Automatic annotation (TrEMBL):
It holds the Pfam family YlaH. Keywords: Membrane, Transmembrane, Transmembrane helix. InterPro entries: YlaH. The chain crosses the membrane at residues 33-52, 59-76, 82-100. This is YlaH-like protein.
Length: 108
């Protein structure tokens, strides 16, 4: 993942004395693919999964494809706001899940 570190756009104002925000941005840039991978898993299970439990081989295959997708999104994240748009998608899906849950109980 060294090529992602080289592609980082964030340069702290004072590299000798990093603030908490600077440290977080540097950490987020160095772990870009893993953060996007976790966000992709959340989006999949909140929005697309019909069942939480699948056979183990399907789950492994799903995780492999999600990781490949996270590598592609990590490359795109250098110039586009992929991480923040994934957070917006997660927030929207959580709101939808919370709002649908009480309606399903009322209909029964």
């Amino acid at each position: 993942m060294d090529w992602l570190i080289l592609a980082s756009q964030y340069v702290p104002a004072n590299p000798d004395q990093l603030s908490a925000y600077d440290s977080f941005r540097i950490w987020a840039d160095s772990n870009r693919a893993w953060i996007i991978f976790v966000e992709l898993i959340l989006v999949y299970y909140l929005g697309f999964a019909t069942t939480w439990r699948m056979p183990i081989l399907k789950t492994v295959l799903l995780l492999v494809f999600l990781f490949i997708g996270s590598l592609i999104f990590a490359i795109l994240d250098v110039q586009l706001p992929v991480k923040s748009s994934m957070m917006v998608a997660i927030a929207i899906l959580v709101i939808v899940k919370v709002r649908i849950k009480p309606d399903a109980n009322k209909r029964s």
